[in-house]
Amino acid sequence: LERRESLAAAVAALFAGPEHNMLLMPKLVLGTKQERLIAALAVGFSGNYKALEPLKTLMCDEDVDLQKAAAFGLSGLKDGVLDEQIVETFLKHLTPAQKPEVITSLLVNLKLFANISLESVFLSFSHHPQKEVRLTALGGLLFTCGAGGLARAIECLKSSDEAFRAIALSVLERHGSRRNMEAILPLMGDAHPRVRQLARETLGSVRER
Question: Is the dihedral of CA 190, 196, 202, 203 positive or negative?
Answer without folding.
Answer: positive
